[in-house]
Write a structure and sequence with these properties.
heterodimer; A: mainly beta; six-stranded mixed β-sheet; four-stranded antiparallel β-sheet; 0% helix; B: 107 residues; mainly beta; seven-stranded mixed β-sheet
């Protein structure tokens, strides 16, 4: 069974940092690109970042570029999102998702971890 | 960026009724790379449909997806109690974007 479990969310002050983790199981993690997607309260889903299978290629939404860093540890089957210089507008539920569909579409998602910047 | 607009925002129906949800794209979705998800409170989104019309593994056949280009539809033929949830669409033909969601609630 494919399982993605996020952790690391919480309450942080503006300007602070958090590191989110996503533990993957039930599939060969190193074979898949991965996404981080967020949903702010009352807003729609937005992809924040994605990463290729070996971490050599990454991409970021303009709103987080220069502040967030995506990475992965294939030996530990874990995806990360380092978030620095956090702002109130980064408050959201953060989901990791596997890019298991053709052309990188997300298929399996975690339950999310809540980040509150206040 | 392709903007996906879902309608209606909320659908109030009774168990056994048919639900029709719309997802309209601001430009044509490449290769019909359009997926539908179901999400319940506190749970991970679950993939229902990919490639506009292919059911994901384990998804009951009361769920069906149709459409191409810019107009896509998710139909639930007969609502079961467990189908009351939020549904959202995702296009993955050009980057990755999502619709705002439709809530299917019990009337």
């Amino acid at each position: 069974e494919v399982k993605l479990v996020e952790s690391g969310g919480g309450l942080v002050q503006p300007g602070g940092s958090l590191r989110l983790s996503c533990a993957a199981s039930g599939f060969i993690f190193s074979n898949y690109w991965m996404h981080w997607v967020r949903q702010a309260p009352g807003k729609g889903l937005v992809r924040v970042s994605h990463i290729n299978v070996d971490g050599s290629t990454t991409s970021y939404a303009d709103s987080v570029k220069g502040r967030f860093t995506i990475s992965r540890d294939n030996a530990e089957n874990t995806l990360y999102l380092q978030m620095n210089s956090l702002r109130a507008e980064d408050t959201a539920m953060y989901y990791c998702a596997r890019a298991g569909l053709t052309a990188g579409g997300a298929d399996y998602w975690g339950q999310g971890t809540l980040v509150t910047v206040s | 960026e392709i903007v996906l607009t879902q309608s209606p925002g909320t659908l109030s129906l009774s168990p056994g009724e048919r639900a029709t949800l719309s997802c309209r794209a601001s430009q044509s979705v490449s290769s019909n790379h359009l997926a539908w998800f179901q999400q319940k409170p506190g749970q991970a989104p679950r993939l229902l449909i990919y490639g506009a019309s292919s059911r994901a593994s384990g998804i009951p056949d009361r769920f069906s997806g149709t459409g191409s280009g810019t107009d896509f539809t998710l139909t639930i033929s007969r609502l079961e109690p467990e189908d009351f949830a939020v549904y959202f669409c995702q296009q993955y033909g050009s980057s990755l974007t999502f619709g705002g969601g439709t809530t299917v609630e019990i009337k």
